[in-house]
Amino acid sequence: MKQYIVDTFTDKPFAGNPAAVCVMESWCSEEAMMKLAMENNLSETAFIVKEEKGYHLRWFTPGTEVELCGHATLASSFVILNFYEPNSSEVKFNTLSGELTVKRKGNMYEMDFPTYELKEIPVTDAMEKAFGVRPAGAVLGLDLVCVFNSEDVVRNMKPDQMLLTRIEGRIQNVTARGTETDCVSRSFCPKLSIAEDPVCGSAHCQIAAYWAEMLNKKEIYAYQASKRGGYLHCRMEENDRITISGEAALVAVSEIVAEL
Question: Is 44 a catalytic residue?
Answer without folding.
Answer: yes
